[in-house]
Amino acid sequence: MDRETVGSVNRGRLQVEVRTEGCSEVVKPAGELDHHTADLLRAPLEEAIEQGRVRLVIDCSQLEFCDSTGLNVLLGARLKAEAGGGAVHLAGMRPVVARVFEITGAEAVFTVHDSVEAALGH
Predict the structure, then answer these.
(1) 42's torsion region: left (phi>0), alpha (psi -120 to 50) or beta?
(2) What is the helix (H) or strand (E) element at residue 95, kind and residue range?
(3) Can you say whether the dihedral through the CA atoms of 89, 93, 98, 104 is positive or negative?
(4) Collapsed DSSP state (helix, strand, coil) of residue 118
(5) What is the C-alpha separation between 41 and 115, in angstroms, rounded?
(6) Rounded mean pLDDT of 108-116?
(7) What does the buried/exposed string (b/e) look like for 39-58 if buried means 16 or more CB atoms within 10 Å of the residue's CB?
(8) Each residue of 34-45: pLDDT tens digit?
(9) What is the DSSP letter of 11?
(10) Burial class (CB in 10 A: 0-12, 13-18, 19+), 91
(11) What is the DSSP letter of 115?
């Protein structure tokens, strides 16, 4: 067992990139999204929404893990974006992450795309 990550607050397990593409804010979390790292994703999502960028594309292609805390961050961003007239689009989910959304039923409340390009064109 890796004692560097299990039960620690090792924030190095999640990196988040943000870029603007036209009218969309593309947010790319890479690594593990869980209760230790959720704020690293929550902060840029809330900042984008506060600045009126409410069409959010979450590039999940490098997301290796997502627990219920991470799912709640995305659900919260979805509610705030929709309240501002926008939406949250998920793109490029790996099977292990897609399974979490399937099991919880969360896939039904998000628009899911195979790729970022597809999400941007939608």
Answers:
(1) alpha
(2) helix 95-104
(3) negative
(4) helix
(5) 19
(6) 95
(7) ebbbebbeebbeeebbbbbb
(8) 999 999 999 999
(9) G
(10) buried
(11) S
